[in-house]
Amino acid sequence: MRDHLIIFDTTLRDGEQSPGASMTKEEKVRIARHLERMGVDVIEAGFPAASNGDFEAVKAVADAVKDSVVCGLARAIETDINRAGEALRGANAARIHTFIATSPIHMKNKLRMSPEQVIEQAVKAIKWARQYTDNVEFSPEDAGRSEIGFLCRVLEAVIDAGAKTVNIPDTVGYTMPEQFGLLIRTLRERIPNSDRVIFSVHCHNDLGLAVANSLSAVMNGARQVECTINGLGERAGNAALEEIVMAVRTRQDYFPCDTRIDTTHIVPASKLVSGITGFPVQPNKAIVGANAFAHESGIHQDGVLKHRETYEIMRAEDVGWGANKLLLGKHSGRNAFRSRLKELGIELESEEMLNTMFMRFKDLADKKHEIFDEDLHALVSDEVHTPEEHFRLLSLVAHSETGEVPFARVVIADGSNECHAESEGSGPVDATYRAIEKILNSGAELQLFSVNNITSGTDAQGEVTVRLQKSGRIVNGHGADTDIVVASAKAYLSAYNKLYSKLERAHPQV
Ligand SMILES: [Zn+2]
Question: Which residues are involved in binding Mn(2+) (predicted)?
Protein backbone atom coordinates (compact mmCIF):
# COMPACT_ATOMS: atom_id res chain seq x y z
CA MET A 1 0.00 0.00 0.00
CA ARG A 2 1.41 3.39 -1.03
CA ASP A 3 1.11 6.36 1.27
CA HIS A 4 -1.33 9.03 0.30
CA LEU A 5 0.24 12.41 -0.45
CA ILE A 6 -2.30 15.08 0.46
CA ILE A 7 -2.60 17.90 -2.05
CA PHE A 8 -3.47 21.16 -0.31
CA ASP A 9 -4.20 23.83 -2.88
CA THR A 10 -3.83 27.45 -1.83
CA THR A 11 -4.43 29.16 -5.20
CA LEU A 12 -7.42 30.95 -3.67
CA ARG A 13 -5.48 32.19 -0.62
CA ASP A 14 -1.72 32.46 -1.16
CA GLY A 15 -2.14 32.64 -4.95
CA GLU A 16 -4.68 35.39 -4.65
CA GLN A 17 -2.20 37.43 -2.62
CA SER A 18 -0.03 38.04 -5.67
CA PRO A 19 -0.46 41.68 -6.63
CA GLY A 20 -3.21 42.01 -9.22
CA ALA A 21 -4.49 38.44 -8.84
CA SER A 22 -7.45 39.18 -6.61
CA MET A 23 -10.59 37.28 -7.51
CA THR A 24 -14.27 37.82 -6.97
CA LYS A 25 -16.39 35.41 -4.98
CA GLU A 26 -17.84 33.91 -8.18
CA GLU A 27 -14.38 33.39 -9.64
CA LYS A 28 -13.20 31.68 -6.48
CA VAL A 29 -16.17 29.35 -6.51
CA ARG A 30 -15.55 28.43 -10.13
CA ILE A 31 -11.91 27.60 -9.47
CA ALA A 32 -12.83 25.70 -6.29
CA ARG A 33 -15.32 23.55 -8.20
CA HIS A 34 -12.64 22.69 -10.72
CA LEU A 35 -10.16 21.79 -7.96
CA GLU A 36 -12.81 19.60 -6.37
CA ARG A 37 -13.36 17.73 -9.63
CA MET A 38 -9.61 17.28 -9.98
CA GLY A 39 -9.49 15.50 -6.65
CA VAL A 40 -7.65 18.13 -4.60
CA ASP A 41 -7.83 16.98 -0.97
CA VAL A 42 -7.86 20.38 0.75
CA ILE A 43 -8.81 23.75 -0.76
CA GLU A 44 -7.59 26.76 1.20
CA ALA A 45 -10.25 29.28 0.21
CA GLY A 46 -9.03 32.43 1.91
CA PHE A 47 -8.44 34.35 5.10
CA PRO A 48 -11.92 35.14 6.46
CA ALA A 49 -10.78 37.71 9.03
CA ALA A 50 -8.97 39.76 6.38
CA SER A 51 -12.08 41.44 4.98
CA ASN A 52 -15.79 40.95 4.50
CA GLY A 53 -15.13 40.09 0.88
CA ASP A 54 -12.78 37.32 1.88
CA PHE A 55 -15.24 36.06 4.49
CA GLU A 56 -18.03 35.88 1.91
CA ALA A 57 -15.78 34.15 -0.62
CA VAL A 58 -14.70 31.45 1.85
CA LYS A 59 -18.32 30.97 2.86
CA ALA A 60 -19.40 30.61 -0.78
CA VAL A 61 -16.67 28.04 -1.46
CA ALA A 62 -17.54 26.13 1.73
CA ASP A 63 -21.18 26.01 0.66
CA ALA A 64 -20.40 24.95 -2.92
CA VAL A 65 -17.70 22.30 -2.49
CA LYS A 66 -18.67 18.87 -1.23
CA ASP A 67 -15.84 16.43 -2.00
CA SER A 68 -12.80 18.39 -0.80
CA VAL A 69 -11.99 19.71 2.64
CA VAL A 70 -12.40 23.50 2.66
CA CYS A 71 -9.89 25.39 4.75
CA GLY A 72 -9.79 28.92 6.15
CA LEU A 73 -6.69 30.69 7.43
CA ALA A 74 -6.66 32.43 10.83
CA ARG A 75 -4.04 34.06 13.00
CA ALA A 76 -3.71 32.36 16.39
CA ILE A 77 -6.24 34.70 17.95
CA GLU A 78 -9.83 34.02 18.95
CA THR A 79 -11.50 36.64 16.75
CA ASP A 80 -9.75 35.35 13.60
CA ILE A 81 -10.61 31.75 14.44
CA ASN A 82 -14.24 32.67 15.08
CA ARG A 83 -14.47 34.33 11.66
CA ALA A 84 -12.97 31.25 10.02
CA GLY A 85 -15.29 28.94 11.94
CA GLU A 86 -18.33 30.98 10.88
CA ALA A 87 -17.29 31.16 7.23
CA LEU A 88 -16.79 27.39 7.13
CA ARG A 89 -20.07 26.49 8.80
CA GLY A 90 -21.68 25.19 5.60
CA ALA A 91 -18.74 22.97 4.63
CA ASN A 92 -19.08 19.20 4.44
CA ALA A 93 -15.57 18.95 5.82
CA ALA A 94 -13.86 22.02 7.25
CA ARG A 95 -10.31 22.75 8.33
CA ILE A 96 -9.01 25.74 10.25
CA HIS A 97 -5.40 26.65 9.53
CA THR A 98 -3.92 28.78 12.27
CA PHE A 99 -0.44 30.24 12.50
CA ILE A 100 1.92 32.22 14.72
CA ALA A 101 5.52 33.32 14.21
CA THR A 102 8.21 31.32 16.00
CA SER A 103 11.45 33.01 14.93
CA PRO A 104 13.23 35.22 17.49
CA ILE A 105 13.05 38.26 15.21
CA HIS A 106 9.27 37.94 14.64
CA MET A 107 8.46 37.07 18.24
CA LYS A 108 10.38 40.01 19.58
CA ASN A 109 9.59 42.72 17.04
CA LYS A 110 6.23 41.79 15.56
CA LEU A 111 4.42 39.91 18.28
CA ARG A 112 6.28 41.42 21.26
CA MET A 113 5.85 38.11 23.05
CA SER A 114 8.22 35.83 24.92
CA PRO A 115 8.77 32.30 23.57
CA GLU A 116 6.71 30.89 26.45
CA GLN A 117 3.83 33.23 25.59
CA VAL A 118 3.98 32.12 21.96
CA ILE A 119 3.63 28.45 22.95
CA GLU A 120 0.74 29.29 25.24
CA GLN A 121 -0.99 31.32 22.52
CA ALA A 122 -0.53 28.56 19.93
CA VAL A 123 -2.00 25.92 22.24
CA LYS A 124 -4.93 28.16 23.11
CA ALA A 125 -5.59 28.75 19.41
CA ILE A 126 -5.67 25.02 18.60
CA LYS A 127 -8.12 24.35 21.42
CA TRP A 128 -10.26 27.30 20.39
CA ALA A 129 -10.33 26.15 16.77
CA ARG A 130 -11.37 22.66 17.83
CA GLN A 131 -14.73 24.05 18.92
CA TYR A 132 -15.46 24.40 15.22
CA THR A 133 -13.72 21.36 13.72
CA ASP A 134 -11.42 18.51 14.68
CA ASN A 135 -9.43 19.19 11.55
CA VAL A 136 -6.95 21.84 12.69
CA GLU A 137 -3.67 22.70 11.00
CA PHE A 138 -0.89 24.69 12.60
CA SER A 139 1.95 26.63 10.93
CA PRO A 140 4.93 28.13 12.72
CA GLU A 141 5.48 31.26 10.63
CA ASP A 142 9.09 31.93 9.63
CA ALA A 143 10.02 28.36 10.63
CA GLY A 144 13.20 28.63 8.57
CA ARG A 145 14.66 31.24 10.92
CA SER A 146 13.30 29.63 14.07
CA GLU A 147 15.54 27.87 16.52
CA ILE A 148 15.12 24.12 16.04
CA GLY A 149 14.81 23.30 19.76
CA PHE A 150 12.06 25.87 20.18
CA LEU A 151 10.31 24.75 17.01
CA CYS A 152 10.18 21.20 18.41
CA ARG A 153 8.66 22.45 21.68
CA VAL A 154 5.97 24.50 19.92
CA LEU A 155 5.05 21.64 17.62
CA GLU A 156 4.95 19.07 20.42
CA ALA A 157 2.62 21.36 22.37
CA VAL A 158 0.22 21.98 19.45
CA ILE A 159 0.11 18.25 18.63
CA ASP A 160 -0.80 17.57 22.26
CA ALA A 161 -3.48 20.23 21.98
CA GLY A 162 -5.03 18.35 19.06
CA ALA A 163 -3.54 19.75 15.82
CA LYS A 164 -3.90 17.12 13.06
CA THR A 165 -1.47 18.68 10.57
CA VAL A 166 1.68 20.69 11.20
CA ASN A 167 2.88 22.71 8.27
CA ILE A 168 6.47 23.85 7.87
CA PRO A 169 6.72 26.89 5.62
CA ASP A 170 9.79 28.16 3.85
CA THR A 171 8.20 31.60 3.86
CA VAL A 172 11.00 33.47 2.12
CA GLY A 173 12.12 30.67 -0.25
CA TYR A 174 15.63 30.55 1.18
CA THR A 175 16.40 26.90 1.98
CA MET A 176 18.09 24.32 -0.24
CA PRO A 177 16.40 20.99 -0.98
CA GLU A 178 18.73 18.82 1.09
CA GLN A 179 18.56 21.22 4.01
CA PHE A 180 14.80 21.40 3.92
CA GLY A 181 14.44 17.62 3.71
CA LEU A 182 16.75 17.28 6.67
CA LEU A 183 14.70 19.79 8.65
CA ILE A 184 11.55 17.70 8.13
CA ARG A 185 13.35 14.52 9.06
CA THR A 186 14.84 16.10 12.19
CA LEU A 187 11.48 17.43 13.35
CA ARG A 188 9.86 14.03 12.87
CA GLU A 189 12.64 12.33 14.79
CA ARG A 190 12.93 14.81 17.63
CA ILE A 191 9.30 15.54 18.40
CA PRO A 192 8.08 12.70 20.65
CA ASN A 193 4.45 12.76 19.44
CA SER A 194 5.26 13.40 15.76
CA ASP A 195 3.63 10.14 14.69
CA ARG A 196 0.23 11.59 15.57
CA VAL A 197 0.24 14.24 12.83
CA ILE A 198 0.67 14.72 9.12
CA PHE A 199 3.72 16.81 8.27
CA SER A 200 3.05 19.39 5.60
CA VAL A 201 5.29 21.80 3.70
CA HIS A 202 4.69 25.21 2.14
CA CYS A 203 7.53 26.39 -0.07
CA HIS A 204 8.08 29.63 -1.92
CA ASN A 205 9.90 29.91 -5.20
CA ASP A 206 12.25 32.88 -4.73
CA LEU A 207 15.23 30.78 -5.80
CA GLY A 208 13.23 28.55 -8.14
CA LEU A 209 13.36 25.72 -5.61
CA ALA A 210 9.79 25.50 -4.30
CA VAL A 211 9.03 22.21 -6.04
CA ALA A 212 12.46 20.72 -5.31
CA ASN A 213 12.20 21.66 -1.64
CA SER A 214 8.69 20.22 -1.38
CA LEU A 215 9.71 16.94 -3.01
CA SER A 216 12.78 16.65 -0.81
CA ALA A 217 10.46 17.04 2.18
CA VAL A 218 8.21 14.31 0.77
CA MET A 219 11.21 11.97 0.58
CA ASN A 220 11.77 12.74 4.25
CA GLY A 221 8.27 11.98 5.41
CA ALA A 222 6.10 15.00 4.59
CA ARG A 223 2.66 13.76 3.47
CA GLN A 224 1.01 17.04 2.57
CA VAL A 225 2.25 19.59 0.06
CA GLU A 226 0.80 23.08 -0.12
CA CYS A 227 0.83 24.33 -3.69
CA THR A 228 -0.98 26.44 -6.29
CA ILE A 229 -2.07 26.09 -9.91
CA ASN A 230 0.63 27.53 -12.22
CA GLY A 231 2.75 28.21 -9.12
CA LEU A 232 0.75 31.41 -8.56
CA GLY A 233 1.62 33.24 -5.36
CA GLU A 234 3.36 36.12 -3.69
CA ARG A 235 6.62 37.28 -5.26
CA ALA A 236 8.01 34.34 -7.27
CA GLY A 237 5.09 32.20 -6.23
CA ASN A 238 4.45 28.86 -4.54
CA ALA A 239 5.27 25.29 -5.50
CA ALA A 240 3.31 24.48 -8.66
CA LEU A 241 0.61 21.86 -8.08
CA GLU A 242 0.99 20.41 -11.57
CA GLU A 243 4.73 19.87 -11.15
CA ILE A 244 4.42 18.23 -7.73
CA VAL A 245 1.64 15.93 -8.89
CA MET A 246 3.32 14.92 -12.15
CA ALA A 247 6.76 14.41 -10.58
CA VAL A 248 5.29 12.02 -8.06
CA ARG A 249 3.07 10.32 -10.65
CA THR A 250 5.81 9.95 -13.27
CA ARG A 251 8.40 8.71 -10.80
CA GLN A 252 6.43 6.11 -8.91
CA ASP A 253 9.66 4.08 -8.90
CA TYR A 254 11.19 6.80 -6.71
CA PHE A 255 8.45 8.18 -4.46
CA PRO A 256 6.83 6.04 -1.77
CA CYS A 257 3.49 7.80 -2.17
CA ASP A 258 0.96 9.06 -4.71
CA THR A 259 -1.83 11.61 -4.94
CA ARG A 260 -5.47 11.06 -5.86
CA ILE A 261 -5.42 13.84 -8.47
CA ASP A 262 -7.15 13.16 -11.79
CA THR A 263 -4.33 14.62 -13.88
CA THR A 264 -6.48 15.09 -16.98
CA HIS A 265 -7.94 18.20 -15.29
CA ILE A 266 -4.54 19.87 -14.94
CA VAL A 267 -4.32 21.84 -18.19
CA PRO A 268 -7.94 23.05 -18.02
CA ALA A 269 -7.26 24.19 -14.41
CA SER A 270 -4.18 26.05 -15.56
CA LYS A 271 -6.13 27.82 -18.29
CA LEU A 272 -8.98 28.67 -15.95
CA VAL A 273 -6.67 30.25 -13.36
CA SER A 274 -4.62 32.05 -15.97
CA GLY A 275 -7.79 33.38 -17.61
CA ILE A 276 -9.31 34.63 -14.37
CA THR A 277 -6.16 36.26 -12.99
CA GLY A 278 -4.83 37.51 -16.33
CA PHE A 279 -1.43 35.95 -15.52
CA PRO A 280 -0.27 34.16 -18.67
CA VAL A 281 1.64 30.88 -18.50
CA GLN A 282 5.14 31.01 -20.00
CA PRO A 283 5.43 28.72 -23.06
CA ASN A 284 8.29 26.66 -21.61
CA LYS A 285 6.60 26.14 -18.23
CA ALA A 286 6.71 22.47 -17.21
CA ILE A 287 3.50 20.48 -17.77
CA VAL A 288 1.18 23.40 -18.62
CA GLY A 289 3.30 25.59 -20.93
CA ALA A 290 2.24 25.60 -24.59
CA ASN A 291 5.61 24.10 -25.58
CA ALA A 292 5.81 21.53 -22.78
CA PHE A 293 5.04 18.70 -25.19
CA ALA A 294 6.20 20.21 -28.48
CA HIS A 295 9.20 18.50 -30.02
CA GLU A 296 10.94 20.85 -32.41
CA SER A 297 14.24 19.17 -33.13
CA GLY A 298 14.24 16.72 -36.04
CA ILE A 299 16.00 14.01 -34.07
CA HIS A 300 13.43 14.29 -31.29
CA GLN A 301 10.51 14.28 -33.70
CA ASP A 302 11.81 11.21 -35.44
CA GLY A 303 12.28 9.45 -32.11
CA VAL A 304 8.86 10.40 -30.85
CA LEU A 305 7.19 9.22 -34.03
CA LYS A 306 8.95 5.86 -33.92
CA HIS A 307 8.48 5.27 -30.24
CA ARG A 308 7.03 7.92 -27.99
CA GLU A 309 8.87 6.95 -24.80
CA THR A 310 12.22 7.83 -26.43
CA TYR A 311 11.76 11.49 -25.58
CA GLU A 312 8.44 11.79 -23.82
CA ILE A 313 8.27 10.87 -20.18
CA MET A 314 4.61 11.84 -19.90
CA ARG A 315 1.72 11.83 -22.33
CA ALA A 316 0.19 15.18 -23.21
CA GLU A 317 -3.31 13.74 -23.00
CA ASP A 318 -2.69 12.50 -19.44
CA VAL A 319 -2.38 16.07 -18.18
CA GLY A 320 -5.35 17.29 -20.16
CA TRP A 321 -3.84 18.64 -23.38
CA GLY A 322 -6.41 18.06 -26.08
CA ALA A 323 -9.02 17.46 -23.42
CA ASN A 324 -10.96 20.44 -24.74
CA LYS A 325 -12.89 18.03 -26.90
CA LEU A 326 -15.13 19.47 -29.52
CA LEU A 327 -18.43 19.03 -27.84
CA LEU A 328 -20.82 21.61 -29.05
CA GLY A 329 -21.64 23.29 -32.31
CA LYS A 330 -24.27 25.31 -34.01
CA HIS A 331 -26.82 22.54 -33.86
CA SER A 332 -26.41 21.65 -30.22
CA GLY A 333 -29.57 22.05 -28.23
CA ARG A 334 -30.30 23.69 -24.94
CA ASN A 335 -30.07 20.44 -23.01
CA ALA A 336 -26.64 19.59 -24.40
CA PHE A 337 -25.55 23.11 -23.51
CA ARG A 338 -26.95 22.90 -20.02
CA SER A 339 -25.43 19.51 -19.27
CA ARG A 340 -22.00 20.53 -20.58
CA LEU A 341 -22.04 23.59 -18.31
CA LYS A 342 -22.94 21.33 -15.43
CA GLU A 343 -20.06 19.00 -16.23
CA LEU A 344 -17.77 22.04 -16.17
CA GLY A 345 -19.03 22.91 -12.71
CA ILE A 346 -20.82 26.01 -13.89
CA GLU A 347 -24.17 26.44 -12.23
CA LEU A 348 -26.36 29.26 -13.41
CA GLU A 349 -28.57 30.97 -10.92
CA SER A 350 -31.78 30.94 -12.86
CA GLU A 351 -33.53 29.64 -15.94
CA GLU A 352 -33.43 33.18 -17.33
CA MET A 353 -29.66 33.22 -17.00
CA LEU A 354 -29.51 29.92 -18.85
CA ASN A 355 -31.62 31.37 -21.65
CA THR A 356 -29.39 34.43 -21.96
CA MET A 357 -26.29 32.27 -21.99
CA PHE A 358 -27.79 29.94 -24.54
CA MET A 359 -28.52 32.85 -26.85
CA ARG A 360 -24.94 34.05 -26.50
CA PHE A 361 -23.76 30.54 -27.20
CA LYS A 362 -25.80 30.42 -30.41
CA ASP A 363 -24.37 33.79 -31.47
CA LEU A 364 -20.88 32.51 -30.88
CA ALA A 365 -21.57 29.26 -32.71
CA ASP A 366 -22.58 31.30 -35.75
CA LYS A 367 -19.22 33.07 -35.79
CA LYS A 368 -17.10 30.14 -34.77
CA HIS A 369 -17.82 26.62 -35.90
CA GLU A 370 -16.37 24.65 -33.05
CA ILE A 371 -17.08 25.49 -29.45
CA PHE A 372 -14.60 24.21 -26.88
CA ASP A 373 -14.79 24.07 -23.10
CA GLU A 374 -12.57 27.14 -22.85
CA ASP A 375 -15.05 29.06 -24.98
CA LEU A 376 -17.83 28.16 -22.57
CA HIS A 377 -15.76 29.32 -19.61
CA ALA A 378 -15.08 32.59 -21.40
CA LEU A 379 -18.73 32.98 -22.30
CA VAL A 380 -19.77 32.52 -18.69
CA SER A 381 -16.97 34.74 -17.38
CA ASP A 382 -18.17 37.47 -19.63
CA GLU A 383 -21.65 37.17 -18.21
CA VAL A 384 -21.10 36.63 -14.51
CA HIS A 385 -17.82 38.36 -13.78
CA THR A 386 -19.50 41.64 -13.10
CA PRO A 387 -22.60 41.23 -10.99
CA GLU A 388 -23.81 44.75 -11.65
CA GLU A 389 -23.22 45.65 -15.24
CA HIS A 390 -23.95 49.32 -15.00
CA PHE A 391 -22.01 50.16 -18.16
CA ARG A 392 -22.56 47.93 -21.17
CA LEU A 393 -21.21 48.00 -24.67
CA LEU A 394 -24.09 48.48 -27.12
CA SER A 395 -22.17 48.94 -30.32
CA LEU A 396 -18.71 49.55 -31.64
CA VAL A 397 -17.24 50.62 -34.96
CA ALA A 398 -13.47 50.50 -35.15
CA HIS A 399 -11.67 51.42 -38.31
CA SER A 400 -8.08 50.63 -39.20
CA GLU A 401 -6.51 51.04 -42.59
CA THR A 402 -2.85 51.30 -43.54
CA GLY A 403 -1.88 54.93 -43.98
CA GLU A 404 -5.00 56.22 -42.20
CA VAL A 405 -5.48 57.35 -38.59
CA PRO A 406 -7.49 54.66 -36.77
CA PHE A 407 -10.72 55.78 -35.19
CA ALA A 408 -13.52 54.23 -33.18
CA ARG A 409 -17.12 55.04 -32.43
CA VAL A 410 -18.79 53.51 -29.39
CA VAL A 411 -22.25 53.42 -27.92
CA ILE A 412 -22.41 52.54 -24.25
CA ALA A 413 -25.37 52.06 -21.94
CA ASP A 414 -24.88 54.04 -18.74
CA GLY A 415 -27.69 52.55 -16.69
CA SER A 416 -30.70 53.38 -18.86
CA ASN A 417 -28.97 56.17 -20.81
CA GLU A 418 -27.30 55.69 -24.16
CA CYS A 419 -23.99 57.50 -24.60
CA HIS A 420 -22.15 58.02 -27.89
CA ALA A 421 -18.53 58.98 -28.39
CA GLU A 422 -15.82 58.73 -30.98
CA SER A 423 -12.09 59.16 -30.98
CA GLU A 424 -8.94 58.68 -32.96
CA GLY A 425 -6.06 56.66 -31.60
CA SER A 426 -2.75 55.03 -32.39
CA GLY A 427 -4.57 51.80 -33.20
CA PRO A 428 -8.16 50.51 -33.13
CA VAL A 429 -7.94 49.44 -29.47
CA ASP A 430 -6.41 52.74 -28.40
CA ALA A 431 -9.08 54.65 -30.32
CA THR A 432 -11.79 52.52 -28.71
CA TYR A 433 -10.42 53.11 -25.20
CA ARG A 434 -10.15 56.85 -25.81
CA ALA A 435 -13.75 56.92 -27.00
CA ILE A 436 -14.90 54.93 -23.96
CA GLU A 437 -12.99 57.28 -21.65
CA LYS A 438 -14.73 60.27 -23.20
CA ILE A 439 -17.92 58.79 -21.76
CA LEU A 440 -16.62 57.38 -18.47
CA ASN A 441 -14.10 60.05 -17.55
CA SER A 442 -12.80 57.54 -15.03
CA GLY A 443 -9.26 58.78 -14.55
CA ALA A 444 -8.28 55.13 -14.03
CA GLU A 445 -4.80 54.03 -14.98
CA LEU A 446 -4.47 51.12 -17.38
CA GLN A 447 -1.89 48.82 -15.82
CA LEU A 448 -2.17 45.73 -17.94
CA PHE A 449 -3.61 44.81 -21.29
CA SER A 450 -3.19 41.27 -22.49
CA VAL A 451 -4.73 39.27 -25.31
CA ASN A 452 -4.85 35.50 -25.32
CA ASN A 453 -6.49 33.24 -27.80
CA ILE A 454 -8.75 30.86 -25.97
CA THR A 455 -8.39 28.05 -28.46
CA SER A 456 -6.32 27.79 -31.62
CA GLY A 457 -7.26 28.96 -35.10
CA THR A 458 -7.95 32.37 -36.59
CA ASP A 459 -11.66 32.05 -35.82
CA ALA A 460 -10.80 31.51 -32.14
CA GLN A 461 -12.13 33.83 -29.48
CA GLY A 462 -9.68 36.34 -28.15
CA GLU A 463 -9.77 36.87 -24.43
CA VAL A 464 -8.61 40.24 -23.24
CA THR A 465 -7.63 41.01 -19.67
CA VAL A 466 -7.43 44.58 -18.51
CA ARG A 467 -6.16 45.79 -15.16
CA LEU A 468 -7.25 49.22 -13.98
CA GLN A 469 -6.03 51.14 -11.00
CA LYS A 470 -7.70 54.03 -9.30
CA SER A 471 -7.03 55.46 -5.84
CA GLY A 472 -5.13 52.38 -4.76
CA ARG A 473 -7.78 49.91 -5.90
CA ILE A 474 -6.77 47.39 -8.53
CA VAL A 475 -9.34 45.49 -10.55
CA ASN A 476 -9.17 43.04 -13.42
CA GLY A 477 -11.71 42.86 -16.19
CA HIS A 478 -12.13 40.27 -18.91
CA GLY A 479 -13.86 40.20 -22.23
CA ALA A 480 -14.03 37.54 -24.89
CA ASP A 481 -15.12 37.79 -28.49
CA THR A 482 -14.08 36.54 -31.89
CA ASP A 483 -13.27 40.21 -32.61
CA ILE A 484 -10.43 41.30 -30.33
CA VAL A 485 -11.34 44.99 -30.50
CA VAL A 486 -14.80 44.13 -29.19
CA ALA A 487 -13.21 41.84 -26.56
CA SER A 488 -10.95 44.75 -25.55
CA ALA A 489 -13.90 47.09 -25.11
CA LYS A 490 -15.79 44.51 -23.07
CA ALA A 491 -12.76 43.88 -20.84
CA TYR A 492 -12.33 47.58 -20.18
CA LEU A 493 -15.97 48.02 -19.24
CA SER A 494 -15.93 44.89 -17.10
CA ALA A 495 -12.99 46.27 -15.11
CA TYR A 496 -14.58 49.69 -14.87
CA ASN A 497 -17.87 48.22 -13.62
CA LYS A 498 -15.95 46.67 -10.75
CA LEU A 499 -14.40 50.01 -9.85
CA TYR A 500 -17.74 51.70 -10.23
CA SER A 501 -19.70 49.25 -8.06
CA LYS A 502 -16.93 49.37 -5.41
CA LEU A 503 -17.16 45.63 -5.34
CA GLU A 504 -15.15 44.60 -2.34
CA ARG A 505 -12.06 42.67 -3.23
CA ALA A 506 -10.24 40.41 -0.89
CA HIS A 507 -6.74 41.60 -0.07
CA PRO A 508 -5.54 39.32 2.70
CA GLN A 509 -2.25 40.24 4.28
CA VAL A 510 -0.24 37.54 6.03
ZN1 LIG B 1 2.94 31.42 1.32
Answer: 14, 202, 204, 238
Is 230 annotated as belonging to a binding site? no
63 is in an annotated binding site: no
Q: The CATH number of 3-277 is which of 3.90.850.10, 2.60.120.380, 1.10.3720.10, 3.20.20.70?
A: 3.20.20.70
Ligand 1 centroid from CA 258, angstroms:
23
CA 130 to chain centre: 28
> What is the CA(202)–ligand 1 centre distance, in A?
7
Residue 230: count of CB within 10 angstroms of its CB: 27
CATH superfamily of 389-501: Alpha-isopropylmalate synthase LeuA, regulatory domain (3.30.160.270)
Q: Determine contact, residues 50/87, Cβ cutoff 8 Å.
A: no
Give distance in angstroms: CA of 166 to centre of ligand 1: 15
Does the global pTM surpass 0.85?
no
Residue 139 host element (H or E): strand 136-141
Give whole-number Cα distances, 331 to 327, 328, 377, in Å: 11, 8, 19
Annotated ligand binding at 204? The verdict is yes
List, for residues 207-226, the tens digit of each pLDDT value.
999 999 999 999 999 999 99
Question: Ligand 1 centroid vs 84 CA: distance in angstroms?
Answer: 18
- The answer to the question of whether 355 is labelled as a binding residue is no
| Domain extent listing, the chain | 3-277, 293-322, 325-385, 389-501
pLDDT band at residue 506 under the 50/70/90 scheme: very low
Question: With contact defined as beta carbons under 8 Å apart, do 311 and 296 qualify?
Answer: no
